[in-house]
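=== Structure Prediction Worksheet ===
Name of assembly: unnamed complex
Input type: mixed (protein and possibly other molecules)
Chain count: two
Listed entries:
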Amino acid sequence: MSDLRTEEYDLNMGPHHPSTHGVCRLLLTMDGERVVKVVPYIGYLHRAIEKICENRSYAMCIPMLDRFEYVTSMSCNQVFSLAAERLAGIEVPERAEYLRVIMLELNRIASHLIFFGTTAMDIGALTPFLYALREREDIIDLFEMTCGQRLTYNYIRIGGVSKDIPEEFTPRCRKTIANITEKVEEYKRLLNGNPIWKMRTIGIGKLDADLALAYGASGPILRASGVDYDLRRDDPYSIYDRFDFNIPIYHNGDVYDRYMIRLDEIQESCKIVGQALDSIVEGPIKAKVSPNFKPPAGETYTRIENSRGEMGVHLVSDGSKKPFRLKARGGSYPHLQLLPEIATNCMIADLVAIFASFDVILPEVDR
Amino acid sequence: MNNEELKAYIESNYASLMTFCESGKYDLWFEVKADNLVRVCQKLKDDPELLIDYFCNLGGVDTTENFEAVYNLASSKKKIRIDLKVVLPHENPSVDSVQTIWPAANWYEREMWELYGIQVNNHDNLTRFLLPDDWDQGYPMRKDWDAPDFIRFPDL
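=== Predicted Assembly ===
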């Protein structure tokens, strides 16, 4: 028996594997079912958005950037508008700021619901996906009611927002967030006590705080590893300082914590939306911005807290109608870079769980 | 520490290494010489007053006269943010890797090398990843590069 030996082999996971959330190819070196090495290959969705934006006017960049991170395209609108406003020194009317916060937080909830559904589905529980998309549908309806779009909104514009909310928005939004706050408790009842779910998530894919920081992890992934860093509070933008909300922190940095923190964040976002609806003021929704918008020459790196971590743009203006340079930074890019660090030496089924818990979205990585 | 205090602190402690740029009104931009980059970054990270431990972003800029490598950095503990800019010549631009300080820089440097043709010294894996493996048509993000079917958007 002494001449029996195992041999390592290469396995291609993706680019069209359903659990890679887009088109990401992972080249795995396997020893049986154990992953010895992971090498991510990206670029299948590279559309050169940054190059295309250099040939567009500022207003035309916003729908282009909607495709940068389509699950939360409100954030893409917001980060670009904010950068352009900072360059040009535009004051946004107060009502528009409230509308922005409401939309951003609703979009965060929708994104976390997708995370909840797809992660559970990747790990093998199909039911949560159906639950999550049912609740997400209510939010998408609210967006459709406001701006006519269900996925790529082009709602937040430079200087404000494109349309005011219709009259029936407020009661329906209140109903929706009350429903979702309640439903999150149901999700927790559905999964948290489930022994299979616990076995598949607790202690899997541990990420400690130092490694997370060194690799530029951000958002829920960083906070699930115990680093208290949320740009809504620590690098304030818009009017987040007016709302009373908690920033959930977990300390184990495993798949379970990354899942729990997002469910908690949904509830916190519901609180923010509720407060914003209570305190919203009347007034104009858009500052006067010329159709030939030309910010003075200068540059800025502007960042906001997206559901997938820090989203930022480095925007350079040379004083013309088109951005001179636009570099979009998404949260998923460093997270995918981090994957080999923590997925080495795990089982292949756990690799799927870890990848799902990062909530990577590939259009954001490839741009 | 707010932006004015941070600017005063940098100007008194890093006067020989970093020079203030006027380019950004909202954020703090400093120019760093390419030779000093790694030393400055290490110092910023170790400085107990700054603790720049978070690497946000790195991007190249082609100003047509020269190249710029732009480092957007932050501190998660001190809640501050700072931007560094390295101006490189248009001929044979090269910059040292900072991945020993922030491992996150790895992919950003690879991308800058691939799309701008800025050489990154001491990088452990400088291979293509956004473009096809057999790409031989130059550096697409440079200003003098246009796609074969490119149509310039008309001036409104």
